[in-house]
Amino acid sequence: MKSKWADEFYKMQYGNMSAVDASYYEVQADEIMEQIGKPVDSLLELGAWDGSLAKAMSKKVSHMTTVELVKEMAEAVKENNPGNIEVIHGSFYDVQITDTFDAVIYIEGFGVGTDADQLELLRKIGQWLDNEGCALIDNYQPEHWKKADDIEMRPDPSNNPDVIRRYSYNFEENIIMDTWWKKGHEKLAQTQYLKCYTPEEIDKMCRQAGLRVTVYFPGGAMDYENMRYFEHASLKECMSYRIKIMNL
User: Fold this and answer.
1) Residue 177 lies in a domain
2) How many helices (H) and strands (E) would you count in the chain?
3) Comparing C-alpha atoms, which of 170, 165, 163 is closest to residue 149?
4) Mean pLDDT estimate for the chain
5) pLDDT tens across 140-187, in order?
6) CB burial class (10 A; 0-12, 13-18, 19+) of residue 196?
7) Whose CB has fewer CB within 10 Å in the chain, the N or C terminal residue?
8) Residues 64, 203: Cα–Cα separation, whole Å
């Protein structure tokens, strides 16, 4: 990962969010397997966070490999390891992975860095796939995030009421800026920057990388005027959508 902010931001974010119930990841793992659409023996997860999803996925595959940038999170993955997960600490761009996999997943987080960075990562994903392998990648939909510009909220109000986040949107570059700070300490705020892509843009980028999009899976959407979340939304209105890709 080539963005200097990423390591410190994700470490801070992890420390300011309460744990999610394991059942959430079990449901997520079921959804991922349904979207892959076939049995999986080997799986590569990019951006493993603390290993919660990996632990749920490991029950459905013979072997997993995870790549996590933040050292503390990679250590957490090791602690959550049921025995069939290989844990790699490092950047997607620097790690040396010679194995190929039935499936690769990158759940949330795509869009860190420049367009060239995304293209490089997509090419690497293509190299990590078996001949009939597929990848699932979450992408942020710009039409939704334009509406989030200047929205402020508390990401975990029950457990961390002093933590505040503010969304900003760079309309020229189509980048979400997600800024977190503790009440009274805005000067110490940290920000992540995520590039948004329309379905047409990500399709073009995948083709440049030697990949083809076979399916789009739209996610939910937020109504920021009423601060209500809707679980299902159209491909144009969703917060993010997942693509299933394969080598050309």
Assistant:
1) no
2) 7, 13
3) 170
4) 95
5) 999 999 999 999 999 999 999 999 999 999 999 999 999 999 999 999
6) buried
7) C
8) 27
State how many domains the chain has.
1
Instruction: Tell me if 183 is assigned to some domain.
Output: no
Instruction: Report the CATH number at residue 41.
Output: 3.40.50.150
CA angle 229, 234, 237 (to 5 degrees): 65
Rounded Cα distance, 65 and 200, in Å? 30
Q: Tell me the pTM.
A: 0.96
**What CA–CA distances, in Å, run from 176 to 128, 137, 160?**
28, 17, 23
49 lies in a domain?
yes
In 10 A of CB 175, how many CB atoms?
17
pLDDT digits (tens, 9 = 90+) for 109-146: 899 999 999 999 999 999 999 999 999 999 999 999 99
DSSP 133-178: EEEEEEEE-HHHHGGGTTEEE-SSTTT-TTEEEEEEEETTTTEEEE
Residue 189 placed within a domain = no
Q: Which two tokens stand for residue 176?
A: 């979400």
The domain in which residue 68 lies consists of 6-139+198-218+240-247
